[in-house]
Amino acid sequence: MKSDFIMHPPHPETEWSACTGYCASAVQIKPNLDVPLKDASVCTGPDQLYYLTGTTDGGKVEIWTSSDLKGWTGPTAVWDLAQAGTWQQASKDSSGLCSPEIHVAKGTFWITYGLRQGGTGLLKSLSATVKGPYLDMGQMTADGHDASLFEDEDGAVYWVYGNGRIAKMKEDMTGLEELPRMVEVQPWKVAGREDHPSYTGNLQVGAYGAFLYKRDRLYYMFCADPLERMGSDAVDTFVAVSESI
């Protein structure tokens, strides 16, 4: 990422920002973990090991471990929706867990998750280790998917999910302190590209998978969105940048 990202952001089709251009040295990407897994999420633990989770079949949350992001051991099942479910049991389909994300915040591990029919929840490790046991902190939202956590430098924690919705959490992490709001963005302009879909009045970062990151006092909101680009259907990652949360 260049240092003038905000003033001169890249367009997905420019040669220096795209991953779709021809490259003579390109090689095929080989899987490091050959298992049926979607919505992969990775975090670094306080022990400097990497931990990975994602959507698998059924209602289990499984975690893999690595020291180098190449060789992975596991999985270790740390939570089961069918056995440990509380608020989820009143839902239409308690077997539909999706998009778990693993985070480290406030000195322990947390796993955010969603239900396929809608609704998001949070798990807390009671042992401060990735293996748990995990306490279900309850339902965070009655709608949405792709739940994520963001801890700011002042210690405040935010619930982020769906198409860029965000809400500050209570100090004890048992729920939201405020109603979620959707992050509204101002599309950047590139001369000659006024016909791009991002200029049509759509104020959301993307359609799903919202994730918030902070670096050098700037906040970066990432979202995925289907987009017809370069004559084909694609799912692209869009980024919005702000100096304030």
Structural summary, described in words:
The protein is an all-beta fold and 245 residues long. The protein has a domain at 39-191: Glycosyl hydrolase domain, family 43 (Tachylectin-2, Chain A, 5 Propeller), CATH 2.115.10.20. The chain has 1 helix and 15 strands, in the order E-E-E-E-H-E-E-E-E-E-E-E-E-E-E-E. A 4-stranded antiparallel beta sheet has the order 1-2-3-4. A hairpin with a 4-residue loop joins strand 2 (50-55) and strand 3 (60-66). The chain is globular. It starts with 37 loop residues before the first strand and ends with a strand. The relative contact order is 0.11.
For the structure shown, list the relevant keywords.
245 residues, Tachylectin-2, Chain A, four-stranded antiparallel beta sheet, 1 helix, Family 43 glycosylhydrolase
Concise structural overview:
The chain is an all-beta fold and 245 residues long. Helix content is 2%, strand content 43%. It contains 1 helix and 15 strands.
Q: Return the CATH architecture of the domain at 39-191.
A: 5 Propeller
Radius of gyration: 19 Å
Largest sheet: 4 strands, antiparallel
Name the shape in a single word: globular
Give the topology string: H per helix, E per strand: EEEEHEEEEEEEEEEE
Task: Specify the structural class.
Answer: mainly beta
How many β-strand stretches?
Answer: 15
* Percentage of residues in DSSP E strands: 35-45%
Number of helices: 1
Order of neighbouring strands in the sheet with most strands: 1-2-3-4
Q: Could you report the average pLDDT, rounded to the nearest whole number?
A: 85
CATH homologous superfamily heading of the domain at 39-191: Glycosyl hydrolase domain, family 43
- CATH topology name of the domain at 39-191: Tachylectin-2, Chain A
Q: How helical, in percent, are the residues?
A: under 10%
State the distance separating the first and last CA atoms: 21 Å
CATH first level of the domain at 39-191: which class? Mainly Beta
The residue ranges in which pLDDT falls below 50 over 5 or more consecutive positions are none
